[in-house]
Amino acid sequence: MAHALPQGYVYPMKVCIVGASGKLGRYMIQHALDRGYEVVGVCREQSVTKLDDFADRITIVAGATDDREVIKRAVAGCDGVLTVLVPWGMKGYASGTAQAVLDFAEPSARLVFSCGWHITLDGKDVYSKKLLALVKIGGFLARLARVVDLDDQVEACRRIFASETRWTVVRGSDLEEGESQGLPVWSRHVGDPILVSNLTRRTDFALFMVDAVSNDDVVREAPAIVGGQTESARRHSAQTSTVSAAG
Ligand SMILES: NC(=O)c1ccc[n+]([C@@H]2O[C@H](COP(=O)([O-])OP(=O)(O)OC[C@H]3O[C@@H](n4cnc5c(N)ncnc54)[C@H](OP(=O)(O)O)[C@@H]3O)[C@@H](O)[C@H]2O)c1
Fold this sequence. Notes:
The protein has 247 residues and is an alpha/beta fold. It is 36% helix and 18% strand. The chain has helices spanning 23-34, 68-75, 93-104, 129-144, 150-162, 202-212, 231-246; strands spanning 14-18, 38-43, 59-62, 80-84, 110-116, 166-172, 175-176, 185-187, 200-201, 224-226. It starts with 13 loop residues before the first strand and ends with a helix. The mean pLDDT is 93. The structure holds NADP nicotinamide-adenine-dinucleotide phosphate (NAP). NADP nicotinamide-adenine-dinucleotide phosphate (NAP) binds next to helix 1 and strand 5.
């Protein structure tokens, strides 16, 4: 299948996937390979075997994703860097990873980061009580247990939003496994009717990330996504076509 490439690009486009061995990362590798992209994957030493299925088709750089030397080596010459932003531990893993990518990616590279709906770009998102409680209580307990620091993911995104790079922060809804249902739809603000279903197939989250590399419409945007086949997405699409038919 032919895919649109940004103006001036010729195949093969080269992308680096940071956090390649996780569920999202592996889906992204597959989508990138499907598009004919050359892929460099960064993952922790102990997770390299999780990439065995791809070992002969991608370059693997083993190491922590917040190791600046590892990232410097991995992103060199890449047209796009797709980063799974995870707030593990209490030592600034997410912000360290994001900072290394911001510092070492090629100046013209498209930088695409993953996170959840809880991140806000302009403070205009409207959250459900359930999500607010989950972030507050879950975040507090995870911090107490010193396993996850959600505040560090917030800090990572603050640095990305402030940067002069060509970034996109993709904000995922709740996720489920299953066959692809195609590219998710998105909105600038959580709380918009199109997002109400709050569910995306994980493979389609990955598809949106990979697609964003060649989609200039989402440069310096923080799209909140939802599955294109969900009820709220379909309702929105039906309403939009009724309006345009009437107009
Ligand atoms: N899960 C959800 O419901 C959900 C919802 C919305 C958005 N998101 C976003 O989606 C992204 C992750 O998605 P996912 O849930 O599908 O997870 P995932 O793809 O499995 O990614 C987890 C990543 O965290 C790494 N990791 C695990 N334990 C670690 C540790 N102790 N130290 C350092 N790295 C560690 C994994 O690397 P290894 O392979 O080396 O373990 C992997 O790269 C995040 O950006 C998250 O904010 C998730």
